[in-house]
Fold:
Amino acid sequence: MSRLRSFLLPIVAVSAIIFTASCGSTPDKDAQAQHDREAQKAGVAAEAAIRANSIAWSQAATAKDLDKVVSFYADDAVEMPNQAPAVKGKDNIRKTWGPLLAPPGPGLSWQTSSVEIARSGELAYETGNYNFVTIDKKGKTNDLKGKYVVVWKKQSDGSWKVVVDTDNTDQ
Structure:
């Protein structure tokens, strides 16, 4: 019997240690789980902020408010308009937006289809569709539809600004 006990005792002790270790949580697992929950919350908040910015930006375009439209861009942003050279910097972007807002008619508006946040939480991209409705000199309505991709970057103050803006027409 003592032989059996000396044989079983180490096996039972090792089994108990393994069972206890597998059932309990470790500080590393708890920290990772907490980090994952915080990252998910931050991602949800970032997506909501970007969607809200995009709505406000589209409303500014429809209102033909050039200053407000340009305010959504980072100072070093790049705009890549359809069938035109890339434009870098907020001042140059302002020059490309001016003629877009000038024609009579409802103007430019867009709607977000998706927003994806990078794991780092510092970059995101938005895709969607736009509609550009103008009225020519003869009173004819022109309706141009297309799609776009916008890259947003989180700024040091926590706000999101556009760093890359590109689009192309469906026609």
